[in-house]
Design goal:
This protein is an alpha/beta fold. It has twelve helices and 15 strands. α1 crosses α12, α8 crosses α11 and α10 packs across α11.
Length: 360
């Protein structure tokens, strides 16, 4: 198959990381993959070098002359609007080329702006053949916009399994080593994480926190960091350093539009339990009813005491930490393998007949 992926930009963010992972999986399985970057001036070169398969063909500008794609994938409002304007010209001539719109959390039911123009989401998304969502809220929004339920699919994000798997019984008595990696925006919960760790250390609890990211929501906190908190800055592939180095991943996010955060996916892939807000698709990752629990869900991401208590639970009860580590390993094995996830995208595309879809 020839697959075109359209992204608003290739900056270091969760949706872009997942698109790069999908492209790599499709290339490994023998498909051709092109990635159209709508804002190459915003490209993070280090991120692309670390994340995007070298055989993926990067395209800039319009692609009207390349109208030979079997599958088109767009992620984000700008990319969706771009494809909607030219979807028929992008399909392979004489084929029933399939357009997937992958929700990135930036559509609303009201008219939205794309490049300064008001765009009706229902009109744009109504042209897609299938819609991938990552939370109940995203599914409900599409249904309210009139998208048929049979065209809405829930599909996990995925990652490449780690080459080295560390034992699940590590760090039985030492300090609890926490890490938080996300975009450097205040709503990701950086201050809550840092305050919780500072307060625990003031009470004599041996806990450390490494913060990975950059941006105004993070950089302004340096003056408030205690001795157990380190700022490691931006890293193109932070997950490479996770296994064996940390015990718990944190994401006390206040974003109401979270889907399946890439940071949590990468924590779990490293076999780490996670403490995160019960928002969007996060409960599906940490409390899958068919798998052991893989973490602790927070109900109020602004409540430092709740996060402090969750960290303390792992510090005091290393058996609970080991149980949830086993849950993270199970989630990695059964839900997060990117090759399996990418194959499901194409399987769902190929199995449909005109006008019909398998149930998600």
């Amino acid at each position: 198959m020839k697959i075109l992926i359209v992204v608003p930009n290739l900056s270091a963010a969760g949706p872009q990381a997942q698109i790069c992972a999908l492209a790599g999986a499709w290339i490994r399985s023998g498909h051709g993959c092109w990635v159209l970057d709508l804002a190459p001036e915003q490209r993070d070169i280090a991120f692309v070098q670390a994340r995007l398969h070298p055989e993926a063909a990067l395209i800039e500008g319009d692609v009207d002359a390349c109208r030979l794609f079997d599958v088109v994938v767009s992620t984000g409002r700008q990319a969706d609007a771009f494809v909607a304007e030219r979807v028929e010209r992008l399909r392979r001539p004489g084929s029933d080329g399939f357009w997937w719109s992958r929700q990135a959390g930036d559509w609303t039911e009201a008219a939205a702006a794309v490049n300064g123009k008001a765009v009706n989401g229902k009109a744009v998304l109504g042209k897609a053949d299938g819609h991938v969502v990552q939370s109940p809220e995203q599914r409900a929004m599409l249904q309210r916009m009139g998208i048929p339920s049979e065209q809405i699919w829930f599909m996990h994000n995925g990652v490449v399994p780690p080459q080295q798997v560390f034992p699940e019984t590590q760090n039985e008595e030492g300090p609890l080593r926490c890490v938080m990696c996300a975009r450097g925006e205040a709503l990701k919960g950086w201050s809550t994480a840092m305050d919780a760790v500072n307060q625990l250390r003031e009470r004599g609890i041996r806990v450390t926190l490494d913060l990975i990211g950059k941006g105004p929501g993070l950089d302004g906190l340096r003056a408030e960091a205690g001795p157990g908190v380190r700022f490691l800055g931006h890293q193109a592939s932070p997950a490479l350093s996770y296994s064996g180095r940390y015990d718990v991943g944190l994401l006390p996010t206040r974003f109401g539009t979270e889907g399946l955060p890439n940071s949590i996916i990468e924590y779990l892939n490293a076999g780490m339990p996670v403490i995160a807000t019960a928002v969007g698709g996060v409960p599906m990752l940490l409390a899958d009813p068919e798998l052991p629990a893989a973490g602790i869900l927070l109900q109020d991401p602004t409540d430092t005491a709740e996060l402090r208590a969750a960290i303390r639970a792992y510090y005091d009860n290393r058996a609970l930490l080991a149980d949830h580590r086993s849950g993270a390993v199970a989630m990695r094995a059964h839900r997060l393998n990117i090759d399996h996830v990418a194959a499901m995208w194409l399987k769902n595309t190929e199995r449909r007949s005109p006008g019909t879809f398998d149930k998600p």
